[in-house]
Amino acid sequence: MMYHTSPSLLCADQLRLGETVELLNGLGIDWFHIDVMDGSFVPNFAFGADAIRAVCSAAKRPVYAHVMAVNPQNHIESFAALGCDYFCFHLETTNNPFRLCQQIRAAGMKPAAALNPATGVERLADLLDCLDAVTLMSVEPGFSGQSFLPFMYDKIAALHRMIGGRPVLIEVDGGVNNEIARRCLGCGCDIVVGGYFTLFQKGKAISECYQSFEEAIK
Ligand code: DX5
Ligand code: ZN
């Protein structure tokens, strides 16, 4: 069975984070997507160290930290110690992505880079050999529930071509619904972030949402 989604814990009922992680463990998702927001790179705050540690200890799948923060180099050591498996920095936050990738690997995590919608994939050309994954933002980062930007399909396809045979996964993040997920996966994306319009729909059980997601992407 193939799974193609990473649930965004930002969308979970924050009073029931533990139960939600348990439930998602049972569904066999690719990895847990945990958003870290510093109120500076993005106009919002999300998940601090204690919450990340708690998620990492309960998660039976890898934990992918999507770090929407300036100075990502300051957080590598601490995120490794919290138990994160992937450290995904924003390309817009660094002039030294190669050094960052080396530091992430040296800390025992897998390096990933995220690109804002306005950042071109050609900036990744020389970096792809250092990365395990790329997150393409399909909305401006900061909030859940925004509309998917339609030019993303071409961007996914372009990155997929650039990656060629390399073992670099493409994740698409923001505004994805079941139909959009199907199209993204068709363009060469490996994993869509499961958020507000897929796994965490208002008034619907997560397992029910997951079933209809799986049905839709078949
Ligand atoms: C937005 C975050 C996303 C968000 C997903 O900055 O990075 O992970 O939770 O958004 P929706 O819920 O719209 O799919
Ligand atoms: Zn995210």
TrEMBL record:
InterPro entries (alphabetical): Aldolase_TIM, Ribul_P_3_epim-like, RibuloseP-bd_barrel
Keywords: Isomerase, Metal-binding
Listed transmembrane segments: none
SUPFAM superfamilies (alphabetical): Ribulose-phoshate binding barrel
Record flagged with keyword Isomerase: yes
Pfam families: Ribul_P_3_epim
Keyword Ribosomal protein annotated: no
PANTHER family (alphabetical): RIBULOSE-5-PHOSPHATE-3-EPIMERASE (PTHR11749)
Protein name: Ribulose-phosphate 3-epimerase
Species in which this protein is naturally found: Yanshouia hominis
